[in-house]
Amino acid sequence: MHARRLLGYAATYAILAIAALLTLAPFALSVLTALKSPRQFVQDGPLALPAPPTLENFQALLTTDAGGLIAPIAVTLQMVAVILIGQMVFSVLAAYAFALLRFPGRDLLFWVYVATLMVPQVVVVVPLYLMLTQAGMRDTFWALVLPFVLGSPYAIFLLRENFRAMPGELMDAMRLDGAGTLRLLWNLVIPLNRPIIITLVLITVVTHWNSFMWPLVITSGPPWQTITVATSGMQSQYNSNWTMVMAATTIAMIPLVVLFIIFQRQLTRSIGAGALR
Questions:
Q1: Over pLDDT 90: what percentage of the chain?
Q2: Counting C-beta atoms within 10 Å of the first and last residue's C-beta, which end of the chain has fewer, N or C?
């Protein structure tokens, strides 16, 4: 029985190791290719180690005015920041209202709103495009952020479920002390749900940093081009220079990896708390 258990552990870890290798291999290949010169990539192939490693691809992307990534990175940072602030503010307020306030039609309104999660994003692209085009916002910064800044059904659903699981005794005690609705939200609800809020922050940042379809449809030129659209355009612009394309891909990945490293503990706590509830 002991040998069988060890064999089961070994098989489990072997499967996990293979899955990790398959997941990480594309990212490792991207970084290795970005550290090569175009000549070495052609001569040695994509699987060879860079010898010696070079940063010339990154320097070209971060210093070149035409075709560089500085402007797309700035646009993407602004877009993600505005969407993040808007979604967190409106999602927290809406979830608090749906979870802890009483008003006519509360549950019906909540489930109708959450039902929009079942609608594929591609279905609403054309109506949103027509609406913003007729409003004169096509190819502007506000066209990038307006469809997403007023909250997220997923975020509101997740926050509502966590708010409803809070101990009612704590809220009753604060109300007896004279706390109003906003003070209750700021001093009790948000601090107790900080892990799940941080998780939603990460999900929002990753989702909109990686968003491609909507920025591609609503913008048509470099002024408001995001990093995903700019990187996609480089595949045709630098079709014979894959080291440059992989350098752009690596630059796009770095902020998300740094965010995960910084907030991985909070992310783990939120997953554990959700499983416990």
A1: 26
A2: N
